């Protein structure tokens, strides 16, 4: 847990006051509590996690449940309006900004995006549904992504159109 927190601090450029960093600390704590095998010993840690999770939601406007699979170097730039579904997954060195939603396309379909490595998601973007985002992808501000994005591409617009880096698709 502490190695991951040190890596998260480095990803947030050493800024202890970053709301994104604190959201990651609570996220890492929530993941760590599952390593406690005995249910009765885990219960007080679960209660502490739920209180801290709610505090981060209220104070920072970031909802990052511990059920999300997050890789190394994950960074939340800027606070406010960040919602990530517990069904989502992120690779290593991803960046998301304020106003980003990564989640379900329909409430009756519990499937969220699988996001690759080195993905940069711009302010206000919505990435929805059972889709796959490849590695080294940039998602533009306010884009609405509802279909797969291949590696080394840019997604822009509503609904997002996919542009291969260095050309068009």
TrEMBL record:
Coiled-coil spans in chain: none
Family: Belongs to the transferase hexapeptide repeat family.
PANTHER family the UniProt entry points to: SERINE ACETYLTRANSFERASE
SUPFAM superfamilies: Trimeric LpxA-like enzymes
Acyltransferase in keyword set: yes
EC numbers for this chain: 2.3.1.30
Lineage: Bacteria, Pseudomonadati, Thermodesulfobacteriota, Desulfobacteria, Desulfobacterales
Keyword field contains Repeat: yes
Keywords: Acyltransferase, Repeat, Transferase
The protein's name in its UniProt record: Serine acetyltransferase
Domain of life assignment: Bacteria
GO biological process: cysteine biosynthetic process from serine
GO molecular function, one term: serine O-acetyltransferase activity
GO cellular component, one term: cytoplasm
First-tier enzyme category under EC: transferase
UniProt catalytic activity: L-serine + acetyl-CoA = O-acetyl-L-serine + CoA
């Amino acid at each position: 847990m502490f190695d991951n927190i040190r890596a998260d601090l480095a990803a947030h450029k050493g800024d202890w006051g970053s709301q994104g960093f604190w959201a990651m600390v609570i996220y890492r704590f929530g993941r760590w509590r599952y390593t406690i095998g005995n249910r009765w010993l885990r219960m007080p840690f679960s209660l502490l996690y739920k209180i801290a999770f709610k505090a981060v939601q209220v104070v920072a406007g970031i909802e990052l449940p511990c059920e999300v699979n997050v890789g190394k170097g994950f960074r939340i730039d800027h606070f406010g309006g960040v919602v990530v579904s517990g069904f989502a997954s992120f690779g290593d060195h991803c960046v998301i900004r304020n106003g980003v939603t990564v989640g379900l396309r329909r409430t009756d379909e519990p499937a969220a995006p699988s996001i690759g490595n080195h993905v940069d998601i711009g302010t206000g973007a919505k990435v929805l549904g059972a889709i796959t985002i490849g590695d080294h992808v940039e998602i533009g501000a306010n884009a609405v992504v509802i279909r797969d994005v291949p590696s080394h591409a840019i997604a822009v617009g509503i609904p997002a159109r996919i542009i291969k880096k260095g050309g068009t698709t």
